[in-house]
Amino acid sequence: MGRSIYTDLALESREMNPRIDGVEEINERDGEISITRIKITADEAAKKLDKQKGSYITLDAPELVNRPLDLFEAMSKCLCKEIKLMIPKLGENASIMITGLGNRMITPDSLGPRVAEQVYVTRHITEYMPDAMDHPLRSVCSVAPGVLGVTGVETSEIVRGIVEHVKPDLIIAIDSLAARRASRISTMIQLTDTGISPGSGVGNTRAGLTLESLGVPVMAIGVPLVVYASTVAQDTIELMADETGLHNDEERLKALAEKVISEHMGPMIMTPKDIDSMVGDMSRIIADGINLAIHDMNYDEVKALIA
Amino acid sequence: MGRSIYTDLALESREMNPRIDGVEEINERDGEISITRIKITADEAAKKLDKQKGSYITLDAPELVNRPLDLFEAMSKCLCKEIKLMIPKLGENASIMITGLGNRMITPDSLGPRVAEQVYVTRHITEYMPDAMDHPLRSVCSVAPGVLGVTGVETSEIVRGIVEHVKPDLIIAIDSLAARRASRISTMIQLTDTGISPGSGVGNTRAGLTLESLGVPVMAIGVPLVVYASTVAQDTIELMADETGLHNDEERLKALAEKVISEHMGPMIMTPKDIDSMVGDMSRIIADGINLAIHDMNYDEVKALIA
Amino acid sequence: MGRSIYTDLALESREMNPRIDGVEEINERDGEISITRIKITADEAAKKLDKQKGSYITLDAPELVNRPLDLFEAMSKCLCKEIKLMIPKLGENASIMITGLGNRMITPDSLGPRVAEQVYVTRHITEYMPDAMDHPLRSVCSVAPGVLGVTGVETSEIVRGIVEHVKPDLIIAIDSLAARRASRISTMIQLTDTGISPGSGVGNTRAGLTLESLGVPVMAIGVPLVVYASTVAQDTIELMADETGLHNDEERLKALAEKVISEHMGPMIMTPKDIDSMVGDMSRIIADGINLAIHDMNYDEVKALIA
Amino acid sequence: MGRSIYTDLALESREMNPRIDGVEEINERDGEISITRIKITADEAAKKLDKQKGSYITLDAPELVNRPLDLFEAMSKCLCKEIKLMIPKLGENASIMITGLGNRMITPDSLGPRVAEQVYVTRHITEYMPDAMDHPLRSVCSVAPGVLGVTGVETSEIVRGIVEHVKPDLIIAIDSLAARRASRISTMIQLTDTGISPGSGVGNTRAGLTLESLGVPVMAIGVPLVVYASTVAQDTIELMADETGLHNDEERLKALAEKVISEHMGPMIMTPKDIDSMVGDMSRIIADGINLAIHDMNYDEVKALIA
Fold it and tell me: Is A68 near chain C, with CB under 8 Å?
């Protein structure tokens, strides 16, 4: 039954399966931000957690919903640090391709395209007018390939086509994520070296973007921005089942779940009312973090450049 | 316990209380649109249904979510007919004030302001350049007073202030509504002669706009655009309770409900992923319907005028 | 002929009429910002400059177009200082009404409504839950009355209606302005104690908002965001006339101007391509400045509160 | 000097060079729409007109600015007819790639991306679930590659990368155009079989998209949405020169032009105030026209599908 409780967060998968082997977890703090490092090392664990083997870092700051500017800046800097730790040492001439996944016209799915817009691109300058830069910059480009339902082309096909021309040394993919708990919405950033898994993201329509499929290492950065209504129903039902010992009757529970979901929910998502501003905030935080990590500049330099 | 299942739709309140006196219900069809006329005649019934005494007409067309243009036009024309039936016979010189409630910057709450933008206003023409019109037009103005959290002023205060200057003969208020069932989102239009009740609307922050409070008759037109997550949880729990006979233990159910809601939901709303385009569609349908009803023109004349 | 060169900036009117009596001008610097204080003291001068008698302060920072964050903050703080100097000493219980003029749906005319959205309103808190505030706050409300073409009601009528209920001690009106020179677009903030003059603003459709018309002192804050195409043509023609001695033939020049304007321009406006982001920047700068000036808090406190 | 009078419209280039060989022009009417067919057959003419050899069809309807719905539909149907005439007979299984050029975040440059969003894509259906379609549909996909300044990658590189995977039989590129005359803004659609020329479009930053560069025939559809301020100045100055016989002094005219442009304009564009709604209208008209032309359906079927 757990299958129908969906989350893109390794941290939540781990919570649901606390006692399995092949998973390492480390917890740290950086001011108001709590950092969780989960490493999935065994195939068995990957299967149980429904996540690829690899590293998942979560930056968690519940205070973000109150929108204090200094915490925005702290998150950007913390994200910058983690990106630098995760990316293979990149040389001066390394080229990076930012890839914003999702649908710009659907608010909770627009994180990726919005970050892509705000990243400070340099590839055209480094290629066509290298002398224009006062200090050396890494070559960065940024694309938003769109979603299958709007383009008619698998995102992975479009990305592969661009990759073959741009030949980046690293891809950083940004995506909106689905969480299990509403309390996680817009309070977390997840960073992973496993790329984008097929079926992840808001709407579960993503094709995979991975080292295997693209031939380039793919770092993925995501923010939980929705909870599927079906997850809520499933959770509620299981909770009730615990309370009522109904677990004896799996069949009946399944039927109940289907009844609730079909009657009340269809393909609904749960978001806070002010999701519009939350996506705006998180896209700025992530764009700032990426700009800081890729170009060795201070916060205001970058803000000035990308604005 | 039903208290925490919230709906702005008289039709849904009625469904939850099918067998009470002081309520008349008539069902009709107009092509793909099913029309339900509910009249609450007794105070007792009004209390039970948590709705003001008066008439509530619902236009229901589940096919709307598939966005066929001809159904959009049919809904506009049907809404037009119902508005004409409901409004007291208005003279040539009658003046009407459209009032778009809600927050333009929060997608599911932006229906009112969007309709207000699209209504064909004539008051400035009829007042300052009556000769400019090729055929006589009723005097129509249109305002979007904003929401308390953004303006710091009760919507009703702002509306009253404008009313005292504009002195309209009728107010038509447009608002986003909360439904109990997700299947109702963006498939229905509710029309009522009772005005806006305090605490209704997305976010429940509305102050009342009624004949009593404003001294002008108020017709209200709304569309269900969200379901409160707490409603879903409550519904799910009650359903489980029915299945498990847990109803014997009211206390335990209450505790459960609170646990689920606080853990999973906070002040979440449930919407379809493509709520952005749905609000756009419904605002156009309602603006067209109002324009048709107020100015005696055909569809294309009005579309041309308001575009 | 100068009549058809239109500007809302007292500073530009002054430039065009440098040698007239009844005008005082003081120039200062505050870091990258140059401050110009123009005081029109004589009726004759007011008539010549086509501006009301009173004080006009211009904050000018051409670097703004490059969008450095630290300059944004410096502008907000400088604006804050000037607002504090200009407003009559307001008591603890003074109430202020922000009024955002213009059309939210027309990019270069949306400054006012955008500032109104971002101002930190407190009136509802100070009125209904005074204990909720950790430190005392002035009572602030914020409205966006819309434009005549969309509402059908004179903006001044709507504002008067609200004023009669809210009874503020001061109104701060925000508006998009038209400049003579493109180089001024989005690089200046004009502050005046004369309120809003009839016919000013983008589209020249504003009705006046002044102490005389509302019975409340009105401070106006504006940013030049467009140049009328007719202004450009007129300027060009006069320049050519200077060069060619054509000034002898007034009639011919008039004819030429009309030919150019009707053939090439109609009611066109000139803006930079990225006006969308410029309006976004300036609205944030002004909202921050107002919040700082009204509530005695530091920059981050306010940013956190209003975000 | 004419160099600095810029237009993307073959019709305007032709007006400026009426008496040259190697150009055929045919004029027709279709209701309110006047159709101009210009064919550039000689290299010399192409050089003089600064346009590629090939066919340019202009659909002109000044009434569009008044936004009558029936004219919108007429334009869509007329565009449909012209597309069908221009495209090589495409077989049942022909695949078409719509390419929306320009910057979605800059209003007058957002035509292409907006059309791309509204085109009815079928490639994913025809490829992955052919049985889902009730009647056979051509394979259509739709991409918005973004602009160099935002992505850091030449649009042509991105398009080439996608083309190599999608292997379309035809590309239809949509773009915002610059006109010489303000009266043309949002009243015309230009259709050409020459593809996109380097340096065309709003901002002149386009790289070429042609049969030569992509190996696929490219049809281009554009709408004039801006006039460059420099064009206005240049026009005005030449007009004055005609009037004053100043043409004797080329040098002095050049100097004047530069003075005017640098003093008044910078890189300004001229648009109507309500450009936002105009781009919305034209993108719908073009998307409808394309959908009608590619899929043999009637107007309402297509509207329903794409809505």
Answer: yes
With a cut of 90, say whether residue D306 has pLDDT above it: no
Residues of C in contact with D263 (CB under 8 A): 181, 183
Asked if pLDDT for residue D305 goes beyond 60, the answer is: no
Taking CA atoms, D140 is separated from A151, B69, D75, D121, D285, in Å, by 9, 22, 22, 5, 18
Q: Which helix (H) or strand (E) holds D266?
A: none
3-state DSSP assignment of residue B144: coil
CA distance A254 to chain B (A): 12
Helix A299-306 to helix A69-86 angle (10° resolution) is: 100
Minimum-distance CB partner of B105 among C117, C153, C163: C117
Q: Are A32 and A74 in contact (CB under 8 A)?
A: yes
What is the predicted ipTM?
0.87
Residues constituting chain D: 307
Q: At what angle do helices A111-118 and A275-294 cross, to 10 degrees?
A: 40
* Tokens found for residue A177: 């994520």
Q: Which residues contact C147 (CB under 8 A, 6 or more apart)?
A: C101, C102, C103, C109, C155, C203, C205
A225 close contact with B: CB closer than 8 A: no
D251 touches C84 (CB < 8 A): no
Q: Which residues of C10-48 are buried (b: 16+ CB within 10 A; e: fewer)?
A: bbbbbeeeeeeebbeeeeeeeebbebbbbbbeeeebbeb
Rounded-to-integer distance, Cα B306 and Cα D245, Å: 49
- Does the beta-carbon distance from C68 to A281 stay under 8 Å? no
Contact C276 D240 (CB under 8 A): no
D148-203: per-residue pLDDT in tens?
889 999 999 999 999 999 999 999 999 999 999 888 999 999 999 999 988 777 76
C-alpha span between C8 and C202 (Å, rounded): 9
Highest mean pLDDT among A273-277, C154-158, D206-210: C154-158
Q: How far apart are CA B175 and CA B38, in angstroms?
A: 19
Alpha carbon distances (Å) from C111 to C90, C108, C192: 26, 7, 17
CA–CA distances in Å: residue A166 to residues A30, A127, A290, C216: 36, 11, 19, 62
Residue B135 backbone dihedrals phi, psi, to 5 degrees: -125, 155
Helix (H) or strand (E) holding C28, with range, is: strand C23-30
Written as six digits, the tokens of D217 are 């025939």
> Which residues in chain D are closer than 8 Å to A165, comparing Cβ atoms?
153, 157-158, 160-161
Spatial CA neighbour of A144 closest among A204, A213, A97: A97
A261: confidence class by pLDDT, cuts 50, 70, 90? confident
How is residue C182 annotated by DSSP? Answer: G
Helix (H) or strand (E) holding A36: strand A33-40
Q: What one-character-per-residue DSSP string does D209-239 give?
A: B-HHHHSS-EEEEEEEEEEEHHHHHHHHHHH
Q: The whole model's pTM is what?
A: 0.88
Q: Are residues A124 and D157, on separate chains, in Cβ contact within 8 Å?
A: no
Q: Which residue of C has its CA nearest to D261?
A: C236
Residue A211, helix vs strand vs coil: helix
CA–CA separation, D258 and D256 (whole Å): 5
**Which alpha helices (DSSP H) does chain A contain, by range?**
10-16, 43-49, 69-86, 111-118, 123-128, 148-151, 155-166, 211-214, 229-244, 250-264, 275-294, 299-306
User: Which position has the token pair 């009647």?
Assistant: D135
Look at residue B205 and give its three-state secondary structure.
coil
Chain C residues near residue A66 by CB distance under 8 angstroms: 304
What residues of chain B lie within 8 A of the CB of D307, using their CB?
67-69, 281
Which candidate, D170, D300, D178, D282, places its Cα nearest to that of D227? D178
Contact criterion met (CB below 8 Å) for C240 and D256: yes
pLDDT in tens, B111-147: 999 999 999 898 988 887 777 666 667 899 999 999 9
Yes or no: say if B225 and B277 are a contact pair by the CB < 8 Å rule: no
